Fold:
Amino acid sequence: MIVSPEVPLHRLVLSLSDALDMVHPKIVDHQLRVAYITTRIARAMGYQGEELWDVFQAAALHDIGLIGIENRLRALHHGQLEKVSWHPRVGYELLRDNPLFRRAGDILRHHHVAWAGGKGDENEGQRVPMASHILVLADALERGIDRRLPIVEQSDFILSQATLGAGKRFHPQCVDALRSVARTEAFWLDLDSKHLYGVLLREVTWPTLTLDQGALGPVAEIFARVVDSASRWTAVHAAGVAATSVALASRLHFAPRGLRAMRAAAYFHDLGKLTVPSAILDKPGKLNREEFSIIRGHTYHTFRLLETIGGLEEINEWAAFHHERLDGTGYPFHHGGEQLTLGSRIMGVADTFTAVTEDRPYRKGMERGQCMGVIEKMSAEGALDGDVVSVLKRDYEEIDAIRCAEQQAYAEKQQRLAWFMFPPKRKRLGRLQRSD
Ligand SMILES: [Fe+2]
Ligand SMILES: [Fe+2]
Ligand SMILES: [Fe+2]
Structure:
């Protein structure tokens, strides 16, 4: 078994930032563009090394708390931004427990706080870092660009708006720094470039921080929480797949390194659902043809997104092939038999098991007999791997208990997000039950 090599953290951040914005043509590259503006301003203000890296990370992920395509679109429009005023806090909640992103979380928590003549020095009882004020300006600037018009022609107007806002919405020092870096056409052309991802790769001297499989799992979990929160039916889905796939893999003699990779793959497996609107994920009735094909596209997007990071080839196969079937009847690549490695086969069983035991808008979660009936039938028809299925059948009680425990811990974290997303109703996300 080849378990992929270490992954450079900056590529992971750039690709996941890109993934969050791929959801709609109106938003494409929003965070990458904000990261570019922020990084240029921060450098002009003397930021370097780790500090610059933190500001960049915060900017590249600043809207991570905007759960669901519908909410991401709302944030683009002034009048609608109030409806999603919770998103900087949700973003902070997502990042705060991960040591790699904690400082970025502290910055993005305040990315909609106006300077207001100095009042914006404090927010929610915290001192607002200067980096947050840079982000406020960069975000407003990016949202002010009319993407239908040539960018260089808008530059004077946009800069005059920023100058008007100095001391009010924006920190005056940030506006001064912006004016110094935005003098050239190249600044604006970079911003609008199709090659912005590559420009950003060259813009900063990146820390040589690489993630091994152990550190990758918690990062993947952050993104799984964004995906899962978009629908109340899947609020704890990824945790179930992670627990089940690792439990199956350990019984099939995967080494510790392979188990860590399996956990990361499981938390990444539905990443491509970022491209599916919540209205489809949550639809109570039957999906029509178009909606169904949008849903089916999610694993294609998982595959292409993870591919851009590089170094994750094996994890990507395990993650993105969970709807492929041994007899070639799956999707989207229609891989069969020998193209599906043991890791991908395990993920296929873990995902099916977790999905059938969860409630769905159109049916209740299945108990043991019915669940194993479905899975054994799929194995008999040649869709799922018989050896993997027989391990699940043999150790069902134990594996099911492991699944429930991991979903319970994850549900508590998800509940915290819901607390901020739905004030004051404070809805519960998802429902948890044992399948027996
Ligand atoms: Fe925002
Ligand atoms: Fe934004
Ligand atoms: Fe899936």
User: Anything to note?
Assistant: The pocket of fe (ii) ion (ligand 3) is lined by residues 270, 298-299, 322-323, 351 (CB under 6 Å). The beta strands are 7-8, 122-123, 126-127, 210-211.
